[in-house]
């Protein structure tokens, strides 16, 4: 259950990072409020997952999931480039998250 909460927390992290960009430096109200709401949910779920997972593992996986999510959102909605090098490095992040989960033992 802790890993499921952590994955959802990472997805919410990707969401708040994406909406933060849409807030244009906190100058647009709706995206700013959405960012804050998504942050609250993301941090709450991260804190719940950390009850059962090591802090370093949970934090690294949370940021990795968020990073991969933001890159995917950037590609899908902001026309950010898709290059073999970017895809390779995203693959390395995913491999790191899987490695942390496999070696965690929970």
Radius of gyration: 14 Å
The share of residues in extended strands comes to under 5%
Distance separating the two termini: 10 Å
Shape: flat
Q: Ranges with pLDDT <50 over ≥5 residues?
A: none
Helix content: over 70%
Sheet/helix structural class = mainly alpha
Q: Provide a count of the helices.
A: 4
Sketch the topology as an H/E string, one letter per element.
Answer: HHHH
Give the mean pLDDT: 94
Overall number of domains: 1
Number of DSSP strand runs: 0
Main sheet record:
none
Describe this structure in words.
There is one protein chain. The protein has 106 residues and is an all-alpha fold. Helix content is 81%, strand content 0%. The chain has four helices and no strands. Helix 1 packs antiparallel against helix 2 and helix 3 packs antiparallel against helix 4.
Give the topology:
Elements: H1 2-22, H2 29-49, H3 55-77, H4 84-104
């Amino acid at each position: 259950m802790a890993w499921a909460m952590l994955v959802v927390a990472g997805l919410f992290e990707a969401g708040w990072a994406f909406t933060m960009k849409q807030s244009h430096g906190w100058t647009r109200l709706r995206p700013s409020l959405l960012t804050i709401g998504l942050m609250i949910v993301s941090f709450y779920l991260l804190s719940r997952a950390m009850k059962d997972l090591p802090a370093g593992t949970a934090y690294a996986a949370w940021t990795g999931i968020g990073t991969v999510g933001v890159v995917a959102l950037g590609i899908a909605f902001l026309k950010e480039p898709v290059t073999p090098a970017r895809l390779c490095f995203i693959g390395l992040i995913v491999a790191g998250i899987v490695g942390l989960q496999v070696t965690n033992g929970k």
